[in-house]
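**User:** You know discrete backbone vocabularies at least as well as I do. Would you mind producing a protein record, from residues through to fold? Write it directly below this note and I will take it from there.

**Assistant:**
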Amino acid sequence: MKIEPLFDRVLLQPKESEKETKGGIILPSAAQEKSTLATVKAVGRGGELDGHKIDMQVSVGDTVLYSKYSGTEVTLDGEKYVVVRQADILAVIK
């Protein structure tokens, strides 16, 4: 199956959260924070908001930082994804 986002939505694949601190302490899963870094896997075509055209600012393959509690989590073929609005993406990491 394939997910194709509509309008100004973006399909993200979150990166693994840190399992170990920089000092070498291994964190249990309950102490690990949800990752806010992700790779863009698919992008919608844009849309309109209040009569203004929304151009997409991200493209497939970009690494992005997105809002912690945004989007809808989806599991497809054993892989976890998040579908967010483009406005929930805070920055592109270069």
About this structure: DSSP finds no helices and eight strands in the chain.
